[in-house]
Amino acid sequence: MVSKRAIKQISDSDDDIHKSSSKKTKLGDRSSDSLHKPHHFSAESEKYGIVLRKFYPPEMSNERAQAYNDNLITRPIEELESALEETASTHQDVQVKKAVVHWFKMDLRTTDNRALWEASQKAQEAGVPLICLYILSPEDFEAHIVSPRRVDYILRALQTLKQDLAALDIPLYMETVEKRKYIPQRILDLMEEWKASHLYANMEYEVDELRREAKMVQMCRGKGFSMKLYHDTCVVPPGLLHTGEGKQYAVYTPWFRKWIAHLHENPGLLDLFDAPAKNSSNARQTFGALFDCKLLDAPENKRLSTEDTKLFHATWPAGEHAAMDRLEKFCEEKIGEYGSRRNFPSEASTSSISLHLASGTLSARTAVRTARDRNKTKKLDAGVDGIRAWISEVAWRDFYKHVLVHWPYICMNKPYKPEYTDIEWSYDTAHFEAWCNGRTGFPIVDASMRQIKSIGWMHNRCRMIVASFLCKDLLIDWRMGEKFFMEHLIDGDFASNHCGWGFSASAGVDPQPYFRIFNPLLQSEKFDHNGDFIRKWIPELRDIQGKAIHDPYNRGAGPQAKQAGYPKPIVNHKESRDRALEVYKAGIKRDKP
Question: How far apart are CA 233 and CA 366, in angstroms?
Answer without folding.
Answer: 11
